[in-house]
């Protein structure tokens, strides 16, 4: 055997190295490691050749080359020219001469080489006996040429990829995610628990199945458990590409169900673009909960997508105030029918906050002056299904940790709503641009904001003419004075 630690021989072009009289088919392919793709002198990834049309367009602009290492163990693959090149390089490396008999024995142990070739078509993933979940692609020489005494006309060579180069992985995330989603859907629809009818295989069923799959394989994974919004976001990034692929081929899901999901994704992406969020794209976390709050907080309450901090529009009815010139209106105060007890039940974990942040007995201070500035940033329906309270306590500079998950509301969230609104929210038959959803969300967040007002010792009341007045909580029993209450027309 050659001494260990030596670099692979080559690189060699596959059309000169391998045999020209017969093709190397998919039943006995060549296995590559550390593969890179190059187009017009630039290194590219699988994301650049994600679709068939995109691949053909690039091939018209110039050939796409691949390079990888392989363990050569079959001498019958070699052409006469390839045999001579390999033997010469091996003799130079080992500094000894080889007879054909000794050289042939080398193949039983394997000879590591670098190979360069031309990509013929878009790579595809598959399951095979050679590489589990490996990448497969085809190399073909397009022109007729004469090499080492053989005339070749579109020789075909099949390769399977055991690993990609690190730089190739970096530019192949979308390609690999798309394959992962397609494989998961196929496996989920083949399981015994799958609904027999395609129309019953809804997106909610698919998300639940994905989370069940994650839980069943949790021991093999590290990291936090994804929430439902993460999974919807994961599917949304590739829904259109998968729909186009499955329209041309048989699909395990209903085209109507998947097409409706694609329409919802388009709407959500437009909202995300307006609010500078990343829903439906590669997520970039904007906020990570503090470690001390993670033990008490449910995994489903965390998000891996960007949470909009400065909403561009609001669904909450606006008020005007001569005291604050902020363009963002205060939250709407819910009606008594929609406002249950201040503590309706357990909710998401949140950090401890002062009962009253400022002294309410200082009657010379206007009640509105004690509310933090973030109180006037009206909440909007989140494009990523999860909203986090914007309130920041001025004395500790801590942000409230209250979360609202529209796809998984807690008992505390539902406690702010009337029964018919609870049923509407839990049905999940709404769209993000639904006007009723905006009203339900406004009622829910207003109930939480009302609790913040109580923490600061401030109350809000609405009279018959719709005017809202703010006052100190402990002064409800007497008439308001001009210096400790304020009316908003």
UniProtKB/TrEMBL annotation:
Where is there biased composition of kind Acidic residues? 288-303
Q: Where is the composition biased (Pro residues)?
A: 327-347
Q: Where is the composition biased (Low complexity)?
A: 317-326
Q: Where is this region: Disordered?
A: 273-360
Q: What is this protein called?
A: Uncharacterized protein
